Structure formats: C-alpha cells, structure tokens
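Q: Structure tokens for this one, please.
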Amino acid sequence: MRKWLIVLLILLVFFNVSVFLFIPATLNISKIVYINCSKNSAGRYLLDQSKWQNWWPGNKPALRSFNGALTSTFSFREYSHQATAFFTDKIEVLTRNGHDSLNTILNILPADKNLIVIQWRCSMRTSLHPITRILEYRRATRLRNNMSSILTNLQTFLEKTSNVYGFHIEEIISKDSTLVATRYITAKYPGTVEVYGLIDTLRDYISRQGATETNHPMLRISKINENEFQTMVAIATNKKLPGNGPVFFQHFVPWKTLTGTVNGGTYTIEQAFRQLEVYVSDNQRTSMAVPFQLLVTDRTFVKDSSKWVTVICQPVS
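A: Here is the predicted structure, written as tokens:
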C-alpha cells in the first residue's frame, strides 16, 4: 500500500511539474494573417466599425454599453468582441465569453506595397492551481481559434476587390495600339445619340479604308468648364489609318491598364471611376493617361441603362 502511495505521489509531482513547465504563468494568445491588399483599404473596413458587418462571419452586431456609451458588439461562436478604441494602426477590443473578459489588440501593419499584416493578440494570466491552469489553457486555445476564423474571413473579404471597391479590378497589358479617334464639344452632357453619332463617323471611315475594328469603341467624356463637355471616341483597328478631317490617328505602345466591368448607366459608371481612383491611390499607382470606357453594349439597341455592360480602364505605371 505504501508503495502505491509513493507511486501516486511521484505521479502527482510529475503532473504538477509538467503543467507548470508547459503552461506558463502568462499565456500570450496571438493570431497573424497576411492579406494581399493596401493598408488604406484595410483601414477603411477595420477602423470604421459600421463596416465590420460587411466582413464579420457571425451574427449582426448588437448594442452594448461601454463607459456609459452604446457601442456595437460582434459575436462569433461563444465569444463577443467590442471595439473600445480606434487608432491609426490598431484597435482595442474587449473580448468576452462566460469565463473571461480580456483586453485584446488588433494591429494593422504594412508588410509590402500591396501586403499587410493583421495581428490579433492578448495575454491571459493563469492560475496556480494545475487543473484550473489546464482549463485556462484550453480556453486560450478556443479563443485563438475564434480569432483565427474571424481573421480568415477578413482576409477572404479584403482580397476581393469586388468587396472593397464594388467591382472586380485587374491589371492587363492593353493591345490596342493603332486607333482612329474623333472628338466633339457640347454645351451639355452628351447623350447616347451624340456618342453613337461619333462612333458611326469612325466606323464609316474605317469601312471606307478597308480596315476592321479590333475592340469595342472607347469613350471619354470630360468637363471643360461650366458650359462645355468634350466627348472623345476612338476605335482600335487592324492597321494604321492616316485620318481625314475630324478623324485622326492615335498610336499607343502597349501599356499597363487597370480594368473592371460594371453593369449600369451613367451614374454607376461614374461611381466606378471614382472607386478606380481610390484603388490607384490605395495601391500607390501612377495614372499614365486619362481613364476611358469600352462600350461593350450597343446602347442604341439596349435602351435600359441598367443592362449596359461597360469596361472601365485606367492606364497606369
């Protein structure tokens, strides 16, 4: 009997030593994800809590009091997370569940030009009681898994330009190097009739020259002043044409171009151009020429502008 008591005592000592050896007095809980996006675009969806519901994997936010004010609380599985303070590169988050209430930190760190690091971290003091210490370690593991799932959802969201800017943006090398173009000035914003009048002029000229179109018509409308708009259209051709009267030749070497396809009328297209400007700024690109539209849909036949398909383009370096 005494022998068994000695063995039991040795096992208890070994158990306690193991617990204190492998589970430290302070558990540092941390999860890091690398996200292919700019720091500015990430900041817009992290530093503005009203946009958290766009990427949060759990339920819609609930209001909870903090320091006398109502703030949004976001729940996921058994944890709730409540942002308590926002800074330029970090967010303080109060994390709760049935056992713990922890102050956690979300850091937004630049890693490269188009790569950021999001780190979510906190610390938890552990008990001197070995059983309690083990239970706390298990809770810390569940919390880290919770953080991991949330950050993975954020990563998936931010890496899709359609989520951040409203439509998918990609970079291509433009192959339209030989163009014919014409321009026209009006006292008001041009309508479909005026635009396609210019396009018909170009198409008639291309046909008479024995050439063919190689892409959709290009359109650029710019405001000169309060009373004038300049409309310029161009069409890529399979060979160089000399131009004639209002029709002139344009030549471009292949260039990098940001493009995206949008569905809708003038307002939708203008909003897309604004978002493309934001993308250029976010990603520290340089515009090399004026942006323009590729008219995929023939708007003279499709009267419903919500069905127009347009590719917007921005040459960049």
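A few notes: The CA atoms of residues 60 and 242 lie 61 Å apart. The helical segments are 2-22, 39-46, 52-55, 130-158, 161-165, 192-208, 266-282.
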